[in-house]
Amino acid sequence: MSVVPQEISMDLPVVDLDVYLNNAVDSPEVKAECEKAAKALITYGALVLHDSRVAEKDNETFLDLLEDYFAQPEEELGKDERPELSYQIGVTLENTEKPKCAVDEPCLNVIQRLAPEERPLDISGHHPDPKCRFFWRMAEQPPYETKFPGLNADNVVPQAPHIKERWNPAMQQWGTSMKSAVEGLTEMTAVGLGLPAGTFKDAGKYGPHLLAPTASDLVKYGQKDTILAGFHTDLNFLTIHGRSRYPGLHIWARNTGKRIAVKIPPGNYLLVQAGKQLEHITGGLIKAGFHEVVVNERTVEVIEKRKQQFPDRPLIRISSTFFWHLNSDHDLAPIPKLAEEAYRLRAEQFNLGRDEGEEKTYPPMKVGELVQEELKHIALMA
Ligand SMILES: [Fe+2]
């Protein structure tokens, strides 16, 4: 596999799922596109994915619905909370989830190694994030008894009449689009890493996948340099995003380099980021990508523009996010040949003067155990 280039571009690679879907799996086009996908995830922990099956209007319908949902009074939203299930289904209200990084040594070291001008906004206060979220499960019921029933609970449907009737179709339509796009990418990534195409997809067949829009009230939290979601990585396998109406997502390439303000082109494009499960199974060859959501200059510009253009719409930033997971009962352990490659790449980076910090270990565990450990850190699980 080719190495991380010395100077990396600040534009994320665009990977075309159409090439994979429309050509023979052993064709040179497919091989090249899959290698591009794997390399992008190794270098950036992220990529832009093109999938012509995905319709922009389904994202618009979804964003309209979620703006209307989160514009409801807090007591109405509270009916959809399930703290007894660690908020892994239904709504999480603002100021519940805390960014783990503020009290986590290895994560603080990642920030420390960044040049000061490339660092995220200061999270040292360990304040909870001012964001709300809804978790809508898009999973297939496993045909076996799961050791993690709490991570596989039934969905909550909001009850207000103007929301209820639109809910299922909009959530299912957009969720299914993002799910099939990200599942296609799991195959491309496996092929690009020299593995059988179904390696990851099969291990995630019964994963507790979540359509997980977050919402930030820009009337309350619309000032420049407000942190909407503090610097963190995701605990799942791959996260896929549709375009948000407001910019503000920053990512870091391989957690050592520059802060990148994400731009997703309009049309059939999605952003994908690597999570902790992918990092674990590749032995750190692909690293979970750090990111933050903040109000930056461009967010403020769009807020002002939308106030003029849509004065009657709620001023809420919805992120169009889907978390793809491996099965909770899957035995997670680094694939040996990828772990070797990770070791080699780490040494190479070190020789290039890029210190990736203390070496991490990836002990064997169930995927569900990794998820539960992470949830404790972000204050969602007692
Ligand atoms: Fe995230």
Main sheet characteristics: 10 strands, mixed
The unique ligands bound to this protein are: fe (ii) ion
What is the CATH topology?
Answer: Jelly Rolls
CATH architecture: Sandwich
Strand residue percentage: 15-25%
**Oligomeric state of the chains present here:** single chain
Q: Which structural category do the helix and sheet elements fall into?
A: alpha+beta
Shape: globular
The CATH homologous superfamily is called B-lactam Antibiotic, Isopenicillin N Synthase, Chain
CATH class, please?
A: Mainly Beta
Structure write-up:
The structure is a single chain. With 382 residues, this protein is of the alpha+beta class. It has a single domain (14-377), classed as B-lactam Antibiotic, Isopenicillin N Synthase, Chain (Jelly Rolls, Sandwich). It is 35% helix and 16% strand. It has 11 helices and 16 strands. The chain has helices at residues 17-22, 28-44, 56-70, 74-78, 105-113, 161-192, 199-203, 276-281, 297-309, 336-351, 367-377; strands spanning 14-16, 46-50, 90-92, 132-137, 210-211, 214-217, 227-232, 238-241, 249-252, 259-261, 269-274, 291-294, 316-319, 321-324, 331-332, 365-366. Strands 1, 2, 3, 4, 5, 6, 8, 11, 13 and 14 form a 10-stranded mixed β-sheet that branches. Strands 7-12-9-10 form a 4-stranded antiparallel β-sheet, with no helix packed on it. Strands 15-16 form a two-stranded antiparallel sheet. A hairpin with a 6-residue loop joins strand 9 (249-252) and strand 10. Helix 2 (28-44) packs across helix 6 and helix 3 (56-70) packs across helix 6. The longest helix has 32 residues, at 161-192. It is globular, with a radius of gyration of 20 Å. The model is unreliable at 1-6 (pLDDT under 50). Fe (ii) ion binds at residues 232, 234, 291.
